Amino acid sequence: MTPFMLLQLVGPAVALHVAETMAAAYPDRFHVSANHRRLVEAGKSGVYAPDLSVDPEAAALFAGGDRPATEEQVRERALAAMAEEIRIMLDEGVVAEAADIDLCMLLGGGWPFHLGGITPYLDRAGVSERVNGRRFR
Predict the structure, then answer these.
(1) Are 69 and 116 a contacting pair, CB within 8 Å?
(2) In 3D, which of 18, 22, 12, 15 has the Cα closest to residue 42?
(3) Among the CATH numbers 3.90.1150.10, 1.20.120.140, 1.10.1040.10, 3.10.20.30, which is that of 71-132?
(4) Position 66 pLDDT exceeds 80
(5) Is residue 87 helix, strand or coil?
(6) Tell me: the pLDDT tens digits for 108-125?
């Protein structure tokens, strides 16, 4: 499931509330997207039209900026953020071991089974060491 499909499933207003709550609690780790806020203020249910094409009205709400991120930059930021959050959960004892997070991501988050879990993937890709200075396993 793509992030925008998940946003549509959860609902932009609910997702915005979660983002605002997380940003208030952890301002150094989470922020609220101005584009997301505009989507909610416009009353949009997501970025897709009923036929799953991109809704042009929703797309127009997203500010382009003068240096938009590439797909690879977005992917790398997302992976780095996941590696950081996983390390925090492990260090704070929220979960006992990396395998617990892998199981949750496989069964509940839609992480592809063939990748063997998110933490082995982050280890193989070098993200764990780059972000946290060590591997998960």
Answers:
(1) no
(2) 12
(3) 1.10.1040.10
(4) no
(5) helix
(6) 888 899 988 999 999 999
